[in-house]
# Entry
Amino acid sequence: MKFKNKVVLFTLICFIVMATCYFSVKKNNFLVYLKFQPPTNTEEITKKMTTQKAKDDYDFSNPVPMSDAVFDSYFDDAVFFGDSLTYGMTANFPIDSDNVIACKGASIRTMMQKVELSGKEEMGTVNAIGEVVDREPKKIYIMLGINGLAWMTTQQVIDDYEELIDRIRIANPYAKIYMQSIFPVSKFKEQSDDRYNNYKIDKINNALLNLASEKQVYFLDTNSILKDEKGNLSSEFTNASDGIHINQEAYELWYEYLCEHTA
# Structure
């Protein structure tokens, strides 16, 4: 009888020990499960993972290569940000003019301040970057730099561009940013005002490509499509006496280039 009681007692003790271990393991596993559960906002996590993967896989040290042409609807969620050259898109691109945030005569720094937007003068003075953010774009195309050429060094242009990109990225971290190279000027412009010359423009564009690689934004070599064999803005692409602004044919070529160079 005593032996039987000992066996029962031993069995009972073993059962208690096993049960304690089992529930302890289960508890620890549950705590580990809770600790490493992802946030409930899975859409946000997916966006971050997708964005990071795209950046990890992409070579930002080179201009965006040619790709299959996209349809006009590709630009429905895009904003075009720049000066008078960008403003000219409203009459020459099949895009919503509301998504063109531009100011005639603007420099890079000007577009980081409050301005009166061309074609939207009734809005008064507004924050240009704020107008971009309000539209919640998925792509942002920037074309700036020609208006600062006369008085800014290459480093000053790069410093301003870097600040602009940082501000836009903070305001809209998920948008694809396309930086477009500065267009060339005509031979007449070079000869009449030596502050504007294509050697300096090429130097700035090379520096912008390096900045694009550093900041991981997409660089578009828009400069090359309007050059003649001597590196000037081709006479067939400008009717303007200032040697800077471009004609409808150039805008059509520009739009075609954007359609065929997407990332």
